[in-house]
Design brief:
microtubule; dynein; Rossmann fold; two-stranded antiparallel ribbon; nucleotide-binding; 12% strand; cytoplasm; alpha/beta; elongated
């Protein structure tokens, strides 16, 4: 009994031990899975939201100016320390000298403690079709909803704005069309969200943008010329250097009509793409930072900023997306043909991209054909806004062409030979009609002329260079002065008078000296 009990009881502890040894293993595995999920959650929570900026146009310097304005501190809170104002670290370098440049900026909260997002900026200066493959990898289903296209213009050459904007639009369309179906689907959703939710407008304007009834909100239908040519990516046009507006007035004679025409033209074009517009001035406060943040969906957790439009101050224009309309554009100045500009722009951007500096014959002919029909938006703009360096508007609208036509080198030399032969014949004819001048040799008696031809005569005397003419002149002057002294009748009298005067002075001073044994003159005698 005891043995059976022992045998029966002995396996139980073994099995119990085995069971207890396996249970902690299962618990450790579950704990490990829990910790890994928690760590992943924390890591995802600390991961910064990533935003993308495609900065197109401008020069390397103007692109740097844009990034400085975008990342400038606009809080104005004096309680913040200087190191917090400057940011937590050094400003990242900007590589934008060749082809596609890159840099990044961290967007900080109002207290400069928390980072709201990291913005990657891709910089491209020229709308060359060769750069299209560089832009295509930047547009993916993941990056498209977090991307904003910024096109830079400058007030130093406003007559090129529409042409540059057309080439950038053509380049973007060629890139977007070549994307895969999944990316195109995401782009369509992004445009729908951008249009319907009215991102980029202050909350009060967004609230007034739609109507509601008992069944729910009702969207307002789009007006004419709105969102006709959506690109699939939000777009913003930044016109830099608004301080040069005064220079256009003084140097080029611009008036309010020209400035209003430029503003109406740009707003009509950008309305078709649902894009925003802003004028900026260096070193002056503006709403560029708020516009970019709102367009990218970056909102401060501590300070809520509202974005308000401004169409009154001509150097501080701000037109947010989804705010503009034909009615608001028409009231700026009567007589502007918005329908014609809108239709011409829709036709013109369908062509493939081309360089703004060089155009092929086929593209030039097509543009000439559009100009003849009056359907070229670029021509309509450049006929009113002329390039002052050219004096008059180019009838073909190609104001940036730098090519010139030259003749063949041999043909040029042949024409020059003919001209030289004609000139030679004329010279021979003129010389034959004139008598040959005869030279008469006559002795030159004038000593002055001889001296002028020969020059001064010098000789060396004891190692000193002496001018003979100068020496003779001095000797003659000395002899002349001696002769005058001898011939002067007052020469002897003057000498005797001087001697008598000196003797009188000597006697006077001698009388003042007290001699031994004598008393001074005038003293009483003893």
């Amino acid at each position: 009994m005891v043995g059976l009990d022992t045998m029966s009881s002995s396996p139980n502890p073994g099995s119990k031990v085995a069971g207890t040894s396996s249970r902690p293993t299962s618990k450790d595995g579950s704990k490990k899975n829990i910790w890994s999920s928690l760590l992943d959650t924390v890591a995802n929570g600390k991961r910064l939201p990533e935003k993308n900026l495609l900065v197109l146009g401008g020069t390397p310097d103007s692109q740097r100016e844009f990034l400085d304005t975008f990342s400038a501190d606009t809080s104005g809170d004096p309680s913040l320390a200087n190191d917090k104002r400057k940011g937590k670290g050094k400003t990242p370098p900007i590589a934008n000298q060749f082809a596609l440049g890159y840099t990044y900026r961290d967007v900080l909260d109002a207290d400069k403690e928390d980072t709201l997002a990291r913005v990657s900026a891709y910089l491209l200066s020229e709308p060359s079709p060769s750069f299209a493959p560089l832009l295509k990898p930047l547009l993916t289903p993941k990056s498209v909803p977090e991307t904003l296209v910024v096109i830079l213009m400058d007030w130093s050459d406003p007559w090129t704005w529409v042409r540059r904007l057309r080439e950038w639009t053509r380049l973007l369309r060629s890139v977007l069309v070549s994307l895969d179906d999944e990316t195109k689907f995401v782009m369509e959703e992004t445009m729908t969200e951008w249009r319907d939710r009215k991102r980029g407008v202050d909350p009060s304007s967004a609230a007034a943008g739609g109507m509601s009834n008992s069944s729910g909100p009702v969207a307002i239908p789009l007006g004419p010329g709105e969102w006709d040519e959506g690109l699939g990516i939000p777009m913003c046009v930044v016109c830099q250097g608004a301080d040069k507006i005064e220079k256009l007035e003084k140097d080029h004679g611009w008036h309010e009509e020209q400035f209003d025409f430029v503003l109406q033209f740009l707003r009509t074009i950008l309305l078709k793409h649902g894009a925003s517009l802003i004028y900026t001035t260096p070193f002056l406060a503006n709403s560029l930072q708020g516009l970019i943040h709102s367009s990218l969906g970056i909102h401060s957790l501590l300070k809520r900023e509202s974005l308000k439009h401004n169409v009154i101050d001509r150097d501080k224009i701000l037109v947010p997306a989804n705010w503009d309309s034909w009615g608001k554009i028409r009231i700026i100045r009567e007589g502007f043909d918005m329908e014609g500009v809108s239709t011409a722009w829709s036709i013109e951007i369908q062509d493939p991209p081309e360089s703004i500096y060089q155009t092929t014959d086929e593209n030039q002919q097509s543009e000439n054909g559009l100009a003849d029909e009056g359907t070229s938006a670029v021509t309509m703009f450049e006929q009113t806004i002329n390039d002052p360096k050219r004096g008059t508007a180019n009838p073909h609208g190609n104001t940036t062409k730098i090519e010139i036509e030259t003749t063949d080198l041999q043909d040029f030399f042949a024409t020059q030979v003919e001209k030289l032969e004609d000139l030679k014949a004329k010279d021979e004819k003129e010389n034959s009609n004139q008598p040959t001048p005869q030279l008469e040799m006559s002795p030159m008696a004038d000593e002055g002329k001889v001296n002028d031809h020969i020059g001064p005569v010098q000789f060396n005397m004891g190692g000193i260079q002496v001018d003979a003419d100068d020496m003779l002149k001095k000797l003659r002057d000395r002899e002349a002065s001696r002769t005058l002294k001898k011939e002067s009748p007052y020469a002897g009298t003057g000498g005797n008078d001087e001697k008598a005067h000196n003797q009188a002075l000597a006697n006077f001073f001698a009388g003042l000296v007290k001699k031994p044994g004598s008393s001074p003159r005038g003293s009483p005698s003893a």
